[in-house]
């Protein structure tokens, strides 16, 4: 099954990770991270302290986990246990790399792609109606790319990393169910691009969002330059990218970079989950068609947009969810949607 879903971007990430580990000439070390399996090393015996250090450097803790809808138990890919009060029908994609402030590494990209594909493959079973993207690290959403790792990469591998990161964020944005980013603390560079790839962004007032790439000699390359002008005015997008100056949550709300702001970090997750729960209560078939429609009409004129709206609306007419919605209204009860 994994082979069937292994897109070119996945192979690029795997190849990149393996080449990162090729430091010994005749003694090549390979790390395998397969779905549902722990990481295993297959190589000649580790025969030096240098090999041990290399292994520890690149096989650090898992940087993502996903909560399972319908229950309160984490699907924890980082090895730690715990309980989470997760709303029904909501999956949470959680950044959990505290030692590195959720910096995005090659491993993060690989795991993110795997989890996004898992969410994509579950479409149709009504288990997941909304995806919440958040951090498990206090004071930071994501500090951006792992620059220490980047510094160790040759130019070609740096380009492959950015391409793979851009591709997986596009896959995240194309999930059929709505995605919500809960941003607290620092969301810089690649961290801001993760939030931009979501349909809705909610932030704490203390959030710090910015695009500092130009101060590092590059530009936002995982969707920042492509998406930001469609969220803000083109000139405001240029101001944030050219100047590199971050803005707080309140200013982000004023300019439209985030959709709503809560007063404190403590309230953010509660409010984000409430929002996800409200969305999840609606007809999943209608919500997913609405997402397709809104995405399709973003860059066309009004006449063409009206034609697209007509087409998507007609697809809702013969659904069981529409019949249930009308029946529930007439019977003055809460509807029970099934996504059919």
UniProtKB/TrEMBL annotation:
GO terms for biological process: fatty acid beta-oxidation. The keyword Lyase applies. Signal peptide: none annotated. Gene3D superfamilies: 2-enoyl-CoA Hydratase, Chain A, domain 1, Lyase 2-enoyl-coa Hydratase, Chain A, domain 2. This is Enoyl-CoA hydratase. Transmembrane segments: none annotated. InterPro entries: ClpP/crotonase-like_dom_sf (IPR029045), Enoyl-CoA_hyd/isom_CS (IPR018376), Enoyl-CoA_hydra/iso (IPR001753), Enoyl-CoA_hydra_C (IPR014748). One of its GO terms (molecular function) is hydro-lyase activity. The keyword Lyase applies. Keywords: Lyase. One of its GO terms (cellular component) is mitochondrion.
């Amino acid at each position: 099954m994994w082979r069937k879903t292994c897109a070119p971007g996945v192979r690029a990430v795997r190849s990149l990770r393996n080449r990162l580990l090729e430091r010994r000439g005749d003694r090549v070390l390979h790390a395998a991270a397969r779905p549902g399996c722990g990481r295993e090393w297959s190589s000649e015996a580790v025969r030096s302290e240098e090999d041990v250090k290399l292994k520890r450097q690149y096989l650090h803790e898992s940087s993502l986990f996903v909560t399972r809808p319908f229950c309160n138990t984490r699907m924890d890919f980082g090895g730690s246990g715990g309980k989470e009060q997760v709303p029904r029908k909501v999956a949470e994609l959680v950044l959990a790399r505290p030692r590195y402030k959720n910096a995005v590494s090659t491993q993060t990209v690989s795991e993110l792609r795997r989890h996004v594909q898992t969410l994509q493959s579950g479409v149709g079973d009504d288990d997941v109606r909304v995806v919440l993207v958040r951090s498990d690290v206090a004071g930071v959403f994501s500090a951006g790319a792992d620059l220490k790792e980047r510094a160790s990469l040759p130019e070609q591998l740096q380009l492959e990393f950015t391409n793979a990161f851009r591709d997986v964020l596009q896959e995240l944005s194309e999930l059929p169910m709505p995605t919500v980013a809960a941003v607290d603390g620092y969301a810089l560079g690649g961290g801001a691009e993760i939030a931009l790839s979501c349909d809705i962004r909610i932030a704490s007032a203390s959030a710090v969002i910015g695009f500092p790439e130009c101060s590092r000699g590059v530009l936002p390359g995982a969707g920042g330059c492509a998406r930001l002008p469609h969220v803000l005015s083109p000139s405001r997008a240029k101001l944030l990218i050219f100047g590199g100056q971050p803005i707080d949550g309140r200013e982000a709300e004023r300019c439209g970079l985030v959709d709503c702001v809560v007063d404190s970090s403590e309230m953010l997750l509660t409010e984000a989950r409430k929002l996800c729960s409200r969305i999840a209560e609606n007809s999943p078939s209608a919500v997913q068609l609405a997402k397709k429609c809104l995405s399709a009409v973003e860059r066309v004129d009004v006449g063409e947009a009206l034609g697209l709206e007509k087409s998507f609306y007609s697809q809702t007419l013969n659904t069981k969810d529409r019949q249930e919605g009308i029946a529930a209204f007439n019977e003055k009860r809460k509807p029970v949607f099934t996504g059919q």
